[in-house]
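Is this the right way to post structure tokens for a design question? Let me know if I should format differently. Anyway, here goes:
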């Protein structure tokens, strides 16, 4: 394990970096995802044709500046984009659960399944850690209530285990699924049901305490009785992680999970996520604008700009040889000892309006190498390496070679 306070890396948690992740089965595949928002000024193309894959056991980093569409993309996996004004305008998100792969079944499209089926998947097979634990936790409910909700919704069989499982009385089975009506709740307070109800509650307490213990929360039994305002930011984030990993999901979405935390706590939280990922063999979609963290913890990276993916590849490829001018601008903006004191590189210009955007490269107004085709045509992703793609007209679609003379100085 890494030293406390150190930045966690893949090697710190002994992840097998020798295996070829390119051959691993897919957990999720996003294809041409489009999520729009209806605004007074027009239709905002927040996510406009995004495509990427997430493989079994890997951590994929989705990076880009604020407002580029990262969180909207992530929330689309569990259909949490508010509608209205949000609209799923096109594309698909194919998802393979562990059960589906073991049974030889194909994927399901998360955007097309009924709402009831999505409720079964959300929090169970796909879980999400939100970036602000203070807002993600309900201030009016105890920690026990909020973590227990996951077990009531998705693991009622675990709650019923010491009570006879599915052979338990119908009244108890309904209580374990939080389906009791007012009359049934009254009956459960009376003998002989009271003893069974107390046994059920104690079983839930055990499951909640075990989930909290997994996140290294000290004295979880005492924490269960607290409310969110009584916990520190790091403790609240651990509660969110306990919620997310309680059902051993196939895919964990971490949406900037350390944004509200100081550097020391940030390192501990990232280390914890990496350790739990290795033990539970969960795939992770890690969303961040902090390139230094992404470089340390991710296997592959997808760079997003103005609702589009502009570059993808292994972490080593993207950081050692970035191709897209936006990616290079991001790399140059990371503080380093090579910068003169008081100076930081910056990408000139501003992010374009995404209201009914024209057919063009979204970065052309800020790119110092843009030519006429960049202003009239939208580039698609082309291969420039075994696992490296880039959306830029500087590269040939056949072999990834440089084709625009004006860009030769930049890419050489």
């Amino acid at each position: 394990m890494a030293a406390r306070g150190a930045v966690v890396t893949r090697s710190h948690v002994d992840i097998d970096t020798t295996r070829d992740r390119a051959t691993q089965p897919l957990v999720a595949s996003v294809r041409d995802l489009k999520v729009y928002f209806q605004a007074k000024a027009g239709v905002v193309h927040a996510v406009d044709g995004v495509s990427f894959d997430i493989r079994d056991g890997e951590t994929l980093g989705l990076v880009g500046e604020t407002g580029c569409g990262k969180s909207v993309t992530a929330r689309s996996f569990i259909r949490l984009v508010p509608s209205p004004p949000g609209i799923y305008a096109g594309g698909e998100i194919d998802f393979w659960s562990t059960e589906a792969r073991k049974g030889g079944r194909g994927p399901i499209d998360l955007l097309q399944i009924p709402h009831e089926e999505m409720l079964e998947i959300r929090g169970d097979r796909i879980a999400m850690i939100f970036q602000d634990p203070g807002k993600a936790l309900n201030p009016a409910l105890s920690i026990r209530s909020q973590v227990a909700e996951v077990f009531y919704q998705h693991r009622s069989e675990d709650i019923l285990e010491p009570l006879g499982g599915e052979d338990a009385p119908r009244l108890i089975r309904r209580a374990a699924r939080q389906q009791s009506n007012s009359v049934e709740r009254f009956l459960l307070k009376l003998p002989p049901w009271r003893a069974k109800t107390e046994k059920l509650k104690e079983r839930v307490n055990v499951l909640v305490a075990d989930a909290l213990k997994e996140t290294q929360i000290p004295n979880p039994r005492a924490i269960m009785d607290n409310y969110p305002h009584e916990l520190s930011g790091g403790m609240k984030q651990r509660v969110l992680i306990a919620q997310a990993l309680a059902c051993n999901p196939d895919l964990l979405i971490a949406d900037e999970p350390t944004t509200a935390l100081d550097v020391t706590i940030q390192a501990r939280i990232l280390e914890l996520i990496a350790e739990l990922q290795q033990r539970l063999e969960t795939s992770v979609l890690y969303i961040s604008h902090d390139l230094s963290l992404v470089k340390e913890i991710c296997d592959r990276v997808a760079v997003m700009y103005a609702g589009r993916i502009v570059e993808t590849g292994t972490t080593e490829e993207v950081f050692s040889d970035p191709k897209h001018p936006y990616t290079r601008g991001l790399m140059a903006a990371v503080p380093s000892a090579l910068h003169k004191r008081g100076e930081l590189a910056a990408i000139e210009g501003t992010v374009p309006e995404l209201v009914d955007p024209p057919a063009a490269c979204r970065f052309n107004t800020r790119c110092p190498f843009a030519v006429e085709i960049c202003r009239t045509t939208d580039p698609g992703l082309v291969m420039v390496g075994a696992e490296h793609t880039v959306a830029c007209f500087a590269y040939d679609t056949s072999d990834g070679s440089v084709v625009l003379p004006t860009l030769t100085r930049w890419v050489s």
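Format looks fine. Someone answered above. Worth noting: Confidence is low (pLDDT under 50) at residues 1-19. The CA atoms of residues 255 and 287 lie 5 Å apart.
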